[in-house]
Amino acid sequence: MANSIQHIKSKGILGLSISVEGPRVGKARVSVDDFAEIMRRTQQALKRIGQVLYGESSIGKGRKKRDIEDLCEIFLVSWKPGSAVAEVELAEPPAQLGLFGYIGEESLKAFLKGMEAIQTEPIPSLPVGYDGGVLQTCDSLGRVLERGIDSIKFEPRNGVALPSISFDRKFRERIRGLLGKPLGQRQAEKVGRLEVLNGHGGLTGRLWEADGTKWLCIFKPDHLELLPDIWLRTVKLVGETVIEQGGERTLSVESILPLDGEIGETAVAEEGFPFWSSLSLEELAEQQKVSPAEDLDAISALWPVDDDPDKLMDHILSDRSARRRISGGGHS
């Protein structure tokens, strides 16, 4: 393994140094789940940017999707001692680059330059290589910021003059701002409650706006992993709208932004205790001014008399079953 890593480095292949900071990160320690999520989303972003840059063109000269994904693949080549820093490099370029050059390298450059543009200035349009799918992936990358990670720093390796980017909560808010804004003249945004998801014959759902307006939403395959988490929630959807003569309203969804149930800034209690600090049960009760329950009858009286617990359980089991069908691609 050591020889192969040295062989890759000697060729000067472009790579990234990815460092993680936060309460859940120690010296050379980071949660396996969080690390895997960061690597997976970074990989996904590079492949999607490659698709945007070198996808099939109208004259049929584009690279095939499989080729693009292979050339945008990244490999872990180093884990630095003393801090949670991973070093990754792109797949080795083909011997003959051909008309399109090295797709992986161009995608990584666009990844960093695009994030720099989003971070440093208001942009009237998306950076080169970015579309709604790339933004969605970047927002999903930000989920680890809800679990005790403060920032993810991306730095170019092998002497390439590219920007270093710190992906933190403030940066994620900029991403989410773009997700919630129409990116083209034919796009619109709709806010409402998402219901009646259907995985058969395509990914569709129903969005109900506050005034009762109903939209048939058509989702992309890229949205599949998000749908179970946003069902029966308030969301903002951005996409192209069509209103048929019969009154049917259709929204071809480009991006999704959940509006409830998200963890924003790091939570801080009234006494100034950080959210991720460990408190005893007694300290927590004192902090939240909670006293022990003394009358169980008074608590039971809060439960509606005509409410049937069995129906509640049936609803929960039905809900879980529907979510599994959606996440499984609509198969029962």
Instruction: State the helicity in percent bands.
Output: 25-40%
Beta strand %: 15-25%
| Uncertain runs | 1-10, 57-61, 262-277
Helical stretch count? 10
Question: Which secondary-structure class do the elements indicate?
Answer: alpha+beta
Large-scale geometry: globular
Main beta-sheet strand count, sense and barrel state:
5 strands, antiparallel
- Backbone CA Rg: 24 Å
The total beta strand count reads 10
How many domains, in number, for the residues? 2
Overall average residue pLDDT? 77
State the assembly state of the protein chains: single chain
N→C terminal distance: 44 Å
The H/E string reads HEHHEEHHEEHEEEHEEHHH
Strand order of the largest sheet: 2-3-1-4-5
Note down, in words, how this protein is organized:
With 332 residues, the chain is an alpha+beta fold. It has 2 domains: 2-179, no CATH class; 183-260 and 292-332, OB fold (Dihydrolipoamide Acetyltransferase, E2P) (Beta Barrel), CATH 2.40.50. The protein has helices at residues 2-10, 32-54, 65-71, 103-120, 132-141, 169-179, 227-230, 281-287, 296-300, 309-327, and strands at 15-21, 74-80, 85-90, 151-157, 165-168, 187-198, 204-208, 214-218, 234-243, 249-258. Helix 2 crosses helix 3 (65-71) and helix 5 (132-141) packs antiparallel against helix 6. The longest helix is centred in the N-terminal third of the chain and has 23 residues, at 32-54.
